[in-house]
Design goal:
single chain; 5 helices
């Protein structure tokens, strides 16, 4: 065999092995050594961990209820994704974790998430737990004082995290990703890809 033939053979093997990988639209972060779990409380007062949702695909988004743009558009888009998934939607759990535990009470979280979809879950922790969870998921957030005393806004990361049925962090979904692309990615995760 010539060197050229050997190189072509190796290239064809390499390319054929790549075709087995799922064609995700979101950023595939499978295997990262962070974002493995959380220990927060849901809007009904129940302690929650990622393992509570084993068997479902989980989409986790960090934000706050007074967010003027990114949070409501993300949750609205996720509602549309679930509608597009049809019967498979009951195998997906959307989780909204607040970065503003001082203002986002359980009652407010319950009202907020259910306004987008009755199956969405709102999570909260105290300031320390919130900071530790955000740090573990590489989520940036920072308070900025408002114009009125005691008012503030929060700048924060805008991506959502998708976990497979086994609870492994698999995807970082960019804010603004199309509903079709997110639905396609979740279908791949639901199919075990």
């Amino acid at each position: 065999m010539t060197l050229r033939t050997v190189l072509l053979f190796c290239l064809s093997l390499l390319l054929s092995s790549c075709s087995d990988a799922p064609a995700f639209k979101a950023t595939d972060i499978t295997g990262v050594d962070w974002g493995k779990d959380f220990a927060l409380t849901d809007h009904l007062g129940q302690a929650r961990r990622l393992s509570d949702f084993k068997g479902k695909v989980v989409v986790l988004f960090f934000g706050y209820t007074q967010c003027p743009d990114v949070c409501p558009t993300t949750l609205s888009a996720l509602r549309e994704v679930l509608l597009q998934l049809g019967k498979e939607a009951d195998q997906v759990q959307v989780v909204f974790a607040t970065l503003d535990p001082a203002r986002d009470t359980p009652a407010l979280l319950a009202e907020y998430v259910s306004a987008f979809h009755p199956g969405f879950i709102g999570l909260y922790g105290n300031e320390t737990t919130t900071a530790a969870t955000a740090r573990d998921f590489k989520v940036f957030y920072a308070k900025h004082p408002g114009t009125l005393p005691g008012s503030y806004s929060i700048d924060h990361s805008t991506g959502s995290y998708a976990f497979d049925r086994q609870g492994r962090l698999r995807l970082l979904i960019r804010h603004g990703e199309t509903i079709d692309n997110v639905a396609a990615d979740l279908k791949l995760l639901l199919a075990g890809k």
